[in-house]
TrEMBL record, chains A, B:
The gene is aroB. Residues 204-348 form the 3-dehydroquinate synthase C-terminal domain. It comes from Aporhodopirellula rubra. Its cofactor is Co(2+); Zn(2+); NAD(+). GO terms for cellular component: cytoplasm. Pathway: Metabolic intermediate biosynthesis; chorismate biosynthesis; chorismate from D-erythrose 4-phosphate and phosphoenolpyruvate: step 2/7. Belongs to the sugar phosphate cyclases superfamily. Dehydroquinate synthase family. NAD(+) binds at residues 94-99, 128-132, 152-153, 165, 174, 192-195. PANTHER family: 3-DEHYDROQUINATE SYNTHASE, 3-DEHYDROQUINATE SYNTHASE, CHLOROPLASTIC. This is 3-dehydroquinate synthase. NCBIfam families: aroB. The lineage of its organism: Bacteria, Pseudomonadati, Planctomycetota, Planctomycetia, Pirellulales.
């Protein structure tokens, strides 16, 4: 029972929905971004888009975070009730602990209980945890089912739902098991953000700002002008911020789908420091975006002190992150512990420290062979 | 840390090693078949071949069946000791129960304990159980490590190690979770067969004979002439039988890597019946190849009665399977139970029974819409 080839493209998006295409040849897919008044009031929008994007199928398996079961989750299932598809719903407990070997084993069995076969499509509704877990289940159940991502956190909308990385954690480390598995569609409804706690929303903004620094100077300027409105979640600038972020990630992913050319590494701007912050602080203490904000500050400090960019870049980044309500420093940073973590990190090539560093707003380079004392100084500058 | 691109091809195979290439574009890989006196006496042969095939790497993780730890397993690790690679060995208990969600979770953690990263290569040493389990672990650890298959059963040499299917079972069914993940090399040393129990060896011959029926009439004739010598495991005809089988599977897989065109379905000749036999007999009662032999007989009976082929085809197949020591009938076959299983089987398109049926030795077709009473008659004919 082969999976049908991907349909050519989504045909007629509703007026309030814009579409970005992730250009991956025969694995190309649309990111549909919907916003505005009709959101929750027009549940049929999703179902028709969905059928256009996935092609011939008989069964939809909604895998959802319990936290959004009554909002985004019920909207999606409501919409699918207007379709001829058989519908199954699987609930996942909120939080990082669901990205475990135990939960994926249970999920595989639950999928089998729904009588899933290759004509089934998995729909992941939730934040990055659900997208990664359900995405990995889709990648591996009967060696691959179609997947649609419906992100409900800002981080998932601008980052984890796009690009095809799926996976789970091991007790010994995060995201150590997984697959590259591209979805057939990403469906972003900005209305889903209305229930997202403030701290989660702000955390997501760190990745948004990251795209401006790494490869889109115009977008960085747009954010400087509109950060207050975005923070208020005003529909139009929020939608633009999400769309520009997705376009940015889609460009990078199209260049380097499976991390073979090295281009995809630019997405790790600030992340080598951030992982060291998260790891030494203890996972869960800081939100990921908070650590990324601090990490971007450390990376920019490092770039300035290596003479790779003007201090003005650092100042503009500082101002924008601050305006977004993100932390800029971490007073408990332990320089030696952080460097020890970085030395174990995958981003270290043959024992030498390697960083993604900006030379101007809108451009970063992968820099190897960075002396440890310069790294230490950058950490100290953000303490 | 990207995985390096696949090396162009293996350069200089030793004199007693022949190489078949699986033509899969940038995922092409060699099947090296070694036999003859030097086998166990020349352990360095593997290591040099291995390094040619996988390219730049620092660490080898041998995942092995405990049953062959002192023979094939120790030969492989012995050979790698002549290389600069860091070496880890992980033991897997023999038998189908190791293809479980529990065992894969443990294996992922054991791989992490070896400090595996993207410069590590997984080497699966054992039968199809080890190849499927270790292959799935390779496909998913850090979203993909390189894999080398070292099959030690006849079935694994001629079937499971070639073609990129990897996976595990769920309590509710076999091979329900997995990935398509092509190895970088398959290393077949026919000397490893010397310890294989007779019943396992004969079971593997069913798949060998299958290739002759489905797409290689010359090979079928070769088998008719040489089956006694192959049964004695004489080196030259055994090696030829394995090489021709691998060539056959490699051709089919090259045409339809991920079961999208339908061509790969021809490998299921006899298997719709065989799965019904295995399932109604209770898994483990019959070996897979034994069920395949009976299933091929049922399929040929069906083809004859549908007027799709001469009775001579059935007679030649009967004679060859019998000469190989394989069962031709199953006296306990329950027609209704078997048809019920087939109706649930993935090979059923929209509720109609579909079979791979021969029209002459060397050619099969996918036939849909087969009436249930014809299927019942074919089962009864082999009872
Ligand atoms: N695959 C990738 O490329 C990629 C990229 C970045 C991060 N990630 C992964 O993403 C995960 C983090 O994602 P996340 O930040 O979305 O975390 P998350 O999924 O845990 O969601 C954060 C919290 O918000 C809740 N929530 C989700 N949507 C909500 C809504 N609309 N209203 C109210 N509450 C809501 C969740 O229940 C959870 O408590 C991590 O596991 C990380 O490894 C993956
Ligand atoms: N991936 C594929 O394309 C594919 C194709 C066909 C079958 N399979 C899978 O392969 C598995 C069956 O493979 P198998 O028949 O090799 O079973 P197996 O791996 O269980 O091996 C059979 C038995 O032989 C023992 N053994 C292995 N090598 C030996 C040796 N050299 N000497 C002595 N004993 C040895 C094993 O310990 C085991 O007890 C099934 O799980 C099936 O689903 C996969
Ligand atoms: Zn991030
Ligand atoms: Zn088989």
């Amino acid at each position: 029972m082969p999976i049908p080839p991907r349909p050519d493209s989504t045909s007629n998006p509703p007026a309030d929905t814009s579409v970005i295409t992730v250009e991956l040849g025969d694995r190309a897919y649309p990111i549909a971004i919907k916003s505005g008044e009709t959101g929750l009031a027009d549940p049929s929008g999703f179902a028709s888009h969905f059928l256009d994007a996935v092609g011939d199928c008989t069964h939809a398996i909604v895998v959802q975070d319990v936290a959004i079961a009554d909002s985004a989750g019920s909207m999606i299932t409501q919409s699918l009730k207007s379709s001829p598809l058989r519908l199954s719903v699987i609930q996942i407990a909120s939080g990082e602990t669901s990205k475990s070997t135990d939960r994926i084993a249970q999920l595989w069995n639950e999928m089998l209980d729904t009588a899933a076969d290759r004509r089934s499509v998995v729909i992941a509704v939730g934040g990055g945890v659900i997208g990664d877990l359900a995405g990995f289940a889709a990648a591996t159940f009967t060696r691959g089912l179609r997947l649609v991502q419906v992100p409900t956190t800002l981080l998932a909308m601008v980052d984890s739902s796009v690009g095809g990385k799926t996976g789970i954690n091991l007790p010994g480390g995060k995201n150590l098991v997984g697959s590259f598995w591209q979805p057939h569609m990403v469906w972003i409804d900005t209305d889903f953000l209305s229930t997202l706690p403030e701290r989660e929303y702000i955390s997501g903004l760190a990745e948004v700002i990251k795209y401006g620094v790494i490869e889109d100077a115009d977008f960085f300027e747009y954010l400087e002008a509109n950060i207050a409105a975005i923070l208020q979640r005003e529909p139009e600038p929020t939608r633009t911020a999400i769309a520009k972020s997705c376009e940015s990630k889609a460009r990078v992913v199209a260049d380097d789908e499976r991390e073979t050319t090295g281009r995809r590494a630019i997405l790790n701007y600030g992340h080598t420091f951030a992982h060291a912050v998260e790891s030494t602080a203890g996972y869960g203490v800081m939100l990921h975006g908070e650590a990324v904000s601090i990490g971007m500050q450390m990376a920019a400090e490092l770039s300035v002190s290596l003479g790779r960019c003007d201090r003005e870049l650092l100042e503009r980044q500082t101002a924008l992150l601050a305006a977004a309500g993100l932390p800029l420093t971490w007073e408990d940073a332990d320089v030696n512990d952080m460097i020890a973590v970085m030395a174990r990190d995958k981003k270290v090539a043959h024992g030498k420290l390697r960083f993604v560093l900006p030379d101007r707003i809108g451009n970063v380079e992968l820099v190897g062979d960075v002396p440890a004392d310069e790294v230490a100084a950058a950490i100290r500058a953000c303490r």
